[in-house]
Amino acid sequence: MKIREATARDVAEIARIHVTSWRVAYAGKLPRTVVAQHSLAQRQNLWQQRYQTDGVLVAEDNGEIVGFIAGGPQRRHADLEAPYPQEVYGLYVDPAQQHRGVGYQLWQARIAEWSAWTVDCLATNSGALRFYTRQGGQLVQAGEYLANQQTFPTRVLGFHQSVPEGD
How far apart are the C-alpha atoms of 58 and 64, rounded to whole Å? Predict the structure, then answer.
């Protein structure tokens, strides 16, 4: 498996993985209208704009994109910027590739040089919450996700690690 920065040619696969994994993760946990709001065309447009600005890394296995992670400066929780200057914006793995270490490798690559960061996870996503807790995440505050004029509770998890100083 190879972890690398996303390029323009990866956008279609990033969008496909985002839509597919979103639908699998939230089926039965969020209203159908909310789950369906992420269309492939809409996500392709989004990632065409963001693949460079959002610090996107992709996991490539045998020449195919199987997952991605986006992250950079704290942007969702200004009140947490001082203690947690970085944020993971999203981590998505193709459902057919889950539970094979793809998410872990992406996670490690993205946070390698960070000392403190957050991730905002829907409270109904118990699998993701377990993953983030195993990575050392601690609940720092509750949040909310707004979709289709409805709000859904999130959990904001904070992370700290020691980063070796340069020579």
Answer: 10
Amino acid found at 12: A
Q: What is the rounded CA–CA span in Å between residue 9 and residue 65?
A: 11
Residue type, 105: Q
Nearest CA to 19 out of 8, 27, 28 is that of 27
- Tens of pLDDT, residues 87-125: 999 999 999 999 999 999 999 999 998 999 999 999 999
Distance of CA 41 to the CA centre of its chain: 19
In the DSSP assignment, the letter for residue 115 is S
The answer to whether 3 and 105 are in contact (CB under 8 A) is: yes
Condensed to tens digits (0 to 9), the pLDDT of residues 120-150 reads: 999 999 999 999 999 999 999 998 888 878 8
The C-alpha torsion from 85 through 60 and 27 to 36, rounded to 10°, is 80
Place of tokens 């991730």: 119
Beta bridge partners of 18: none
Q: Is the dihedral of CA 149, 86, 123, 35 positive or negative?
A: positive
Identify residue 14 by its one-letter amino acid code.
I
